[in-house]
Amino acid sequence: MLIVGVGGLGCPAAQYLASSGAGALVLNDFDRVDESNLPRQILFDDGDVGELKAVAAARRLHALNPATNVTVLAERLDPQALGAAVAGVRVVLDCTDNFATRLAINRACVAAHVPLVTGAALRFEGQMMAFENRGGGPCYRCVYRDEDEWLGTCQGNGVLAPVPGVIGTLMAIEALELVLTGHAPLNGRLLLWDASYGTWQSLAIKSDPMCPVCGITS
User: For the chain, which residues make up each domain, given as ranges?
Assistant: First the structure.
């Protein structure tokens, strides 16, 4: 499984996947641990500040489960490299907070027919979607357009530390379901959680026949 982004979402997702016995994980993150990350990025501590997140996370995951083979991609992947990384795994977990990167990951997953689990967390709110990508839509691009970018960063807008923990844990469950059963319970659905009100919503995602990503492959 490929985890793109080893931050507030990627840390709990990777930890639970490794502890659940995942045979191989690929961690892609070129960022370094900052002190402001520590409240929500639970694989790191003070001693990791300044180190590459993917490297520090791999070390912790190996200690947690030495049987899990962890590959580190501590670099920004261009479209070709991203496509190759996606094509080599069974499931991709998009744990990033960059809209352009999310769209690129979605394109690579649709092209390779690799399932995608994507999540986001900001302030008191979290969301998650899954796409099996068996051919045709819907896909992430059916939900958001280039001009629809609303995803800020946790550092700039703040987030209650447990919120990405909850979403990241749910992403791990979804990825395990995909590997074990071949199906995603949330396939083509948007799960929304508002921690301030304690409410959950599940919305069906309609395939956009004009989608420039999955519409042209339908």
Answer: 2-217
0.90 exceeded by pTM: yes
Could you say which DSSP state residue 53 is in?
H
Active-site choice (109, 154, 211, 214): 154
Find the helix or strand (DSSP H, E) in which 13 lies: helix 10-19
> What is the chain's alpha carbon radius of gyration, rounded to the nearest angstrom?
16
Q: Could you read off the pLDDT of 30-54 as tens digits, one per residue?
A: 999 999 999 999 999 999 999 999 9
Q: Which residue has the tokens 């395990």?
A: 176
* CA–CA–CA angle 30, 31, 34 (5° rounding): 160
Nearest residue to 102 (alpha-carbon basis) of 90, 85, 119: 119
Spatial neighbors of 24 by CB under 8 A, at least 6 apart, are: 1, 68, 69, 70, 71
85-89 — which CB contacts under 8 Å span 24+ positions? 85/2, 85/26, 85/28, 86/2, 86/112, 86/114, 87/112, 87/114, 88/2, 88/26, 89/1, 89/2, 89/26, 89/114
Number of Cβ within a 10 Å radius of residue 199: 9
Q: Is 119 exposed, middle or buried (0-12, 13-18, 19+ CB in 10 A)?
A: buried
Q: For the domain bounded by 2-217, which CATH number is listed?
A: 3.40.50.720
Burial class (CB in 10 A: 0-12, 13-18, 19+), 98: middle
> Is-catalytic flag, 214?
no
My answer on whether omega of the bond before 212 falls inside 30° of 0, hence cis, is no
